[in-house]
Amino acid sequence: MKKRKLSLYIISSLILATCYILCTTLTHAITPTLESPQYRLEWGNVNVGGNEESSKGYKLSTTLGQLAAGNFSSNGYVVKAGFQYLHSIIPFRFSVSNTTINLGSLTPNVSATATTTLTVYFGAAGNYQVTASEMGPLQTLTGNNTIPDTKCDGGNNTCSETIAKIWTSSSAYGFGYNMTGQDTPSDFSSNNSYRPFADLKAGKQPVIVMSNTNVGKNRQSTMMFKANVSPIQVPGSYQTIINLVATPSF
Fold first, then answer.
1. Are the C-beta atoms of residues 179 and 223 closer than 8 Å to each other?
2. Which among 172, 190, 171, 170 is positioned nearest to 180, based on CA atoms?
3. What is the 8-class DSSP label of residue 201?
4. Is 167 exposed, middle or buried (0-12, 13-18, 19+ CB in 10 A)?
5. What does R_g of the chain's alpha carbons equal in angstroms?
6. For residue 209, what are the contacts with CB-CB under 8 A and spacing of at least 6?
7. Fold for domain 4-16+92-248?
8. Which residues 6+ apart lie within 8 Å of 110 measured at CB?
9. 112: Cβ–Cβ under 8 A, 6 or more apart, which residues?
10. Rounded distance, CA 164 to CA 153, Å?
11. How many CB atoms sit inside 10 A of residue 127's CB?
């Protein structure tokens, strides 16, 4: 009996919203510059002014409203100006504990699993979400052979990109994932509930795997990858890329 080796590579991405403001008549406004190696904000808020003041006994962050307060949007951006602005004291952060997943040598009818931990820090007034997708199914480097995405146990337990179902049968083949922990979708009701990844090459849209409207630190979930192959699966090294994208809204 030949064994199949599968390597899964994960790319983690972080989207940060950057706002650029053009002001022609504003005078005496305090306009702090916020920056890190990943982003630069020309202003800390979208108002007529704002500042951070402190002494030995206190720290105060202030913003000033404006005449044109409101929610403004167009293709590509949303501006919540004036009194809708809420200052976040928890910087947005997203990390993936293990970005190279190796499921090892696969034995037919025996499931192989591996995990990685997703961690989010979020403190804004909107919400955050983490989406997942794959760059095609697990396949050999030539692309001639693939391991299909799972349909779970089938029948009443047929899963989809957005609905997790039970996957315990040793004769149900494919590749999929399970989510446990904080802020995960409710359809992952047990450790045996799985979904297939949304395939970008097939025109599918990324699917939410974590989300919350509440502020929080160190929000963690575990993504478990699972593969099960049939006795007639062609031997070889199979791989794909999983995109994990964390997006905050303010």
1. yes
2. 190
3. G
4. buried
5. 23
6. 118, 130, 131, 132, 179, 184, 185, 221, 223, 244
7. Immunoglobulin-like (2.60.40)
8. 170, 228
9. 6, 103, 104, 106, 226, 227, 228
10. 11
11. 15
First-to-last CA distance in the chain?
55
Q: For 136-155, how does the pLDDT look when each residue is reduced to its tens digit (9 = 90+)?
A: 999 988 888 999 999 999 99
Contact 229, 175 (CB under 8 A): no
- Spatial distance between the Cα atoms of 209 and 16, rounded to a whole number of angstroms: 18
Residue of 32, 99, 36, 42 whose CA lies nearest to 62: 32
The pTM (predicted TM-score) of the whole model is 0.71
- 207 half-sphere exposure, CB direction, 13 A CA radius: 23
Highest mean pLDDT among 88-97, 133-142, 189-198, 211-220: 189-198
* Interatomic CA distance for residues 29 and 51, integer angstroms: 9
CA dihedral 212, 214, 220, 223 (to 10 degrees): 0
Q: Are 63 and 85 in contact (CB under 8 A)?
A: yes
Rounded Cα–Cα distance for residues 238 and 180 (Å): 26
Residue 159 has pLDDT above 60, yes or no: yes
User: Residues 2, 137, 162, CA angle at the centre, nearest 5°?
Assistant: 125
Tokens for 30, please give them. Answer: 């305090």
The sign of the torsion formed by the CA atoms of 43, 49, 55, 60 equals negative
Residue at token pair 């991405």: 13
Q: Sketch the domain layout of the chain as residue ranges.
A: 4-16+92-248, 34-84
